[in-house]
Amino acid sequence: MAKASMDYELAALKLFSAQLRGAKQEPHVNALCLFGIRFQRAWLQGVLVSASDQGRFLLDDGSDVVELTVPPLLAQSQWKAGQYVMVVGPYTPSKSGDEFPSVQAQKMVDLSSHPDRESMWYLEVVEAHKLFYLHNLT
């Protein structure tokens, strides 16, 4: 997705990382399409499997791995491998099947102190899928 203005009227889709690979670039607009829904931002939760001082992280939600780019302001927090986090930000598909999809974190929250958040996340994504995404496919 080309760098352009963010349309905050488009929802941030609650997704499993593997679902991102099915997103297609919309022609002539700065948006992607998944399940018939236009979006720019993805809402993911998962475990940080690697962290770096340069603001690059890998997030694994059990379905796939996504590369996170964290801006300096968010990178000031003490992000460590093993933390369970929530991330919302613009999604960029991988250029080839060998690369990880990428999300530029606009919001990142450590949910590690809430052990039920991971199991609840699976239910939230399934609920969003049933209520919103499947509805758009019919």
From TrEMBL:
User: What InterPro entries would the database entry show?
Assistant: NA-bd_OB-fold, RMI2
This protein's GO CC annotations: cytosol; nuclear speck
> Which biological processes are named by the entry's GO terms?
DNA repair; maintenance of rDNA; negative regulation of double-strand break repair via homologous recombination; regulation of sister chromatid segregation
Which domain of life does the UniProt lineage start with? Eukaryota
Protein name stated in the entry? RecQ-mediated genome instability protein 2
**Natural source organism:** Rhynchospora pubera
